[in-house]
Amino acid sequence: KAGVTQTPRYLIKTRGQQVTLSCSPISGHRSVSWYQQTPGQGLQFLFEYFSETQRNKGNFPGRFSGRQFSNSRSEMNVSTLELGDSALYLCASSPLGPVGNQPQHFGDGTRLSIL
Amino acid sequence: AQKITQTQPGMFVQEKEAVTLDCTYDTSDPSYGLFWYKQPSSGEMIFLIYQGSYDQQNATEGRYSLNFQKARKSANLVISASQLGDSAMYFCAMSVTGGGNKLTFGTGTQLKVEL
Which of A41, A64, B40, B85 is deepest in the core (most CB within 10 A)? Predict the structure, then answer.
């Protein structure tokens, strides 16, 4: 069974640009969550999607947005990139809805660097 | 709000020995889940073990076991018979029932297994 697939693996952008990251969950998994990992702030929850609807949102500015498609694939978008957005962005999927207390399975991440 | 505390930034262990990674948590929710993840230098997050707050027995998965002490709010990970491939960053995390699949992570412990 294929795991969570994130594309691209690496990305370099400049300040002010926008970026779209993609996540394909494990087949049959319907919930997708996104996390940002930085050396200074650690791992922080961005948002969670289930049935094409955002179910949970972390404490990030509106420049960070996402969506989920009918096949459960998800994208996140960051507009007007800032240097502080440089991070590893991790996507995780789980089989059930946003019920909590179930293991989430992560992809390899997208490493975003802002110049 | 939930909080996870990992007080050991780095640990060393000799190959074939057991090691305990500490984790304490704080939440006012009575129903929650506790997780441990491994992150090698390549970046992917690997799910290791899960403990539910109402589980009577400590969780075990192969060489991993979770020492759950509810009254002390601790959920330490025990790795038996350490292997060189266990060298990685280890994160303790939690979610609460009704909070969706949002995971709150600790700051992690860097484990180095030596010959």
Answer: A64
- Going by C-alpha positions, the residue among B16, B44, B105 that lies closest to residue A58 is B105
Mean pLDDT (10-residue bins), chain B, 115 residues: 95 97 96 96 93 94 97 97 97 90 95 96
Q: Does the distance separating the beta carbons of B33 and A99 come in below 8 Å?
A: no
- Would you state the pLDDT for residue B100? 85
Q: Do B100 and A55 touch (CB under 8 A)?
A: yes
Burial of B8 (0-12, 13-18, 19+ CB in 10 A): middle
Q: Which site among B37, B66, B101, B105 would you substitute to test the A interface, given the most A Cβ atoms closer than 10 Å to its Cβ?
A: B101
The predicted-structure confidence for A30-86, as pLDDT tens digits, reads as follows 999 999 999 999 999 999 999 999 999 999 999 999 999 999 999 999 999 999 999
Contact A83, A70 (CB under 8 A): no
Residue found by looking up tokens 């996402």 in the block: A66
For B101, the closest of A42, A43, A94 (CB atoms) is A94
Rounded percentage of chain A residues whose pLDDT exceeds 90:
90
B98 interfaces chain A, CB cutoff of 8 Å: yes
In this complex, which of A33, A58, A108 lies closest to B44 when CB atoms are compared?
Answer: A108
SS3 of A27-90: the string is CCCCEEEEEEEECCCEEEEEEEEECCEEEEECCCCCCEEEEECCCCCEEEEECCCCHHHCEEEE
